[in-house]
Amino acid sequence: MIWVKLVFGGFGRRGLEAIIALAILILANAIVAGSLMVIQGARDAIARTAQNDRPDVVQVKSRFNRALFETPRGGNLPPLMLPVYEPLIDPDKFGAVEATVLARQSFLRNVVSGESFLNIYIFGIDPEKEPQVSTFSVDRGRFLRGDDAAVAVVDRASAKALGVDLGGTFPVRKADGEDLTLTVVGILDRLELRYPPPRTVDAPALSAGSSSVTSGVFVTLRTSEEIFARPTLTDALLVAPTPEAVPAVVGQLREAFRLEPGVFVSESYSRFRRKVQDFVLTLALFTALGAATAVLAGSFGANLLHDVYADRRRQAAMLLALGFRPMQSAMSDILFGLTTVAAAAVLGSLLAAASAPRQFAMPSLMAELGTIEPRFDALIVAVMAGIALAILGLGIGPTAWQVRRRSVAATLSEERG
Amino acid sequence: MTRPSIVLRSVSKTYWRGRQSITALQNVSFEVSQGELVLLVGPSGSGKTTLLNLVAALDRPDHGDILVDGLDVTRLSRTAAAGFRNERVGMVFQSYNLLPQLTALENILLPMVARRQSNDRRAVELLEAVGLSDRRSHRPSQLSGGEQQRVAIARALVNDPPLILADEPIGNLDDETAHKIIVLLSDACRQRGKTMLLVAHDREMIGPADRVFEIRTGSLMIMERKQTSSVSQRT
């Protein structure tokens, strides 16, 4: 009980200042915590947008053109003219580009299924690299491996259209007129292909009404080269080391394909940058407001604490005179300050968490990034703890220095007057 | 001849107020025997409190040695000095220096709290000894000056230290209360064989003292032995 009274008692007229300091610190902590929560939520929104937009990815694609498709073996149908990417990209030209290359062959094929035939998109991909940018959710079986041959992974829609299941087979006509039998080793229940080709013909689709291809047969590049009898690519994605490196990568690609009029390079980094620029500026404003609040209110709180501690110098000196060790004497002051700033940090954080909206949208252009969900996390805890300790340090520092520098007798006689 | 409890050898202390130096003590030397009660008298600002603070290791001299029971207190660290005060010194301050948020009993217990040996029974006994058993739960603001000083005396005695240093314990009190306080202090020292340095403005309190030292402008001018009335000048 005596220790409790030593820590929290004996303020005299400074008691009111201690309470005011606590109230101001709670308010300041609430503002800082609220700003940090908005900043964290906004960072999440930017990260979410970056994840969706992938500004670090550069697309290289061939000219979109109509190609003649032979009528398959059965039936009495005329030849078809269907629009597809032309395979014009020489993969060797990516050698000088400083980025991860995700080569693709994206083709349309007529596949015989029972007594009919259907249009199916066949994608030759690099199974190790493609999941970096696209999402393949395997429902049953497994995904492709680098050393796979004559096997395919299909999504549910294409599997249903082909009438195959896991372990089943279906024939695909190769460029030389022979059939290649593909064995299904995996069924996908979700597929999000990054930069898919436009959907131009009637074909199976996982997402009805989408203007892009959302369903298809996935094979390794080696298998697709065997089917189409050529190593050139229809499109490719290049992942730059950082989004900021995209302009350099684009420059290298344009240089590499400057003599290829049918090859186009496109990037989303510029659009992404424009999109987030306002957002980042707004975040900077919030950060500045939070920092300014922390500095001003923190200084004020530290100053009030300093006044309280200055009055407690007499108690510290009295305790030393009675034989309390310096650390014992300091402990009562440290505990008081620590309790004050910790209470302010906890109550301020609770106030911010209780009063912050669950989600809100930024105005105008920034709304493109979606809603912001303010978030309280470990980083905010660390920042709040840092601010609390800084306030405590600034509040107690001068008094601790004076008590240490001066003799006990000098402190007692000074305070006596 | 009992062995000396306090030995001062050529102790000097100067304070600086801006660029102006104030000599509080100048080349002061004396010895106090164990169990002796010495009265230090002198006008205000003569260095009496400084002398007491130096003996209690609340301050350090510029020059000279101070030995208390053979221990050189001028060379103690802050932590060791605190331990020394807690174990060997009972201080009675002129302004009582009671903590306002604590009750009389808790104030008496403080030196024991410092050594983590709180003994309520001992504190209550001391409160009874100083005639304040009915005031144990009162805070300093609810006590008179004399009562506060008696609490301070009980606090000085609670750890049963061999040395009592009392800095003008009756300075703010009326004559009757002052007399009671002096009797209380001297009785406590006599009964338990404690050494006591008692600071006073004048010689009115000479009654119970074995010797009287007079300090003038930082120098120990006169040393009197009460019984023989012998006078020796040191400086």
What does this structure look like?
With 417 residues, chain A is of the alpha+beta class. Chain A has two domains: 2-52 and 274-416, no CATH class; 56-267, no CATH class. Chain A is built from nine helices and 14 strands. In chain A, a hairpin with a 2-residue loop joins strand 4 and strand 5 (116-125). The mean pLDDT of chain A is 84. With 235 residues, chain B is an alpha/beta fold. Chain B is built from six helices and eleven strands. The longest helix of chain B has 18 residues, at 175-192. Chain B is globular and about 45 Å long. The interface between A and B is medium-sized, with 28 and 34 residues.
Largest sheet: spatial strand order of chain B: 6-7-8-3-9-10-11
Judging from the principal axes of the Cα atoms, what is the shape of chain B? globular
CATH class of chain B: Alpha Beta
Number of strands of chain B: 11
What is the helix fraction of residues of chain A, given as a range?
Answer: 40-55%
Query: Radius of gyration of chain A over alpha carbons?
Result: 34 Å
Distance between the termini of chain B: 24 Å
How many helical stretches of chain B?
6
Characterize the biggest β-sheet of chain B. 7 strands, mixed
- State the distance separating the first and last CA atoms of chain A: 30 Å
